[in-house]
Amino acid sequence: MSKLGNQPERKFFQVNMNEVDEFIKYAKHTAEVNDITYKEAVEVFKILEYARRTDVIVEDGDFRDEQAGGFGELIEKLIEKLN
Prior knowledge:
single chain; mainly alpha; 2 helices; elongated
């Protein structure tokens, strides 16, 4: 896949079993510290993940808006040159 400018190549990640084990330990610890159930702790992590995804989507939209604006400026300059 091509990349723009000096953008580093994207890395695709997979979850491995060590990460699963660490998450389970972390969720149990979070549940104990906050006096909630393990299931409630996992639900909190889900909510945080949804918030993260929303932030990523909004940021992506901002980047697309900037790119579209930049393309618009380039097209306007090209039209001016052709006239």
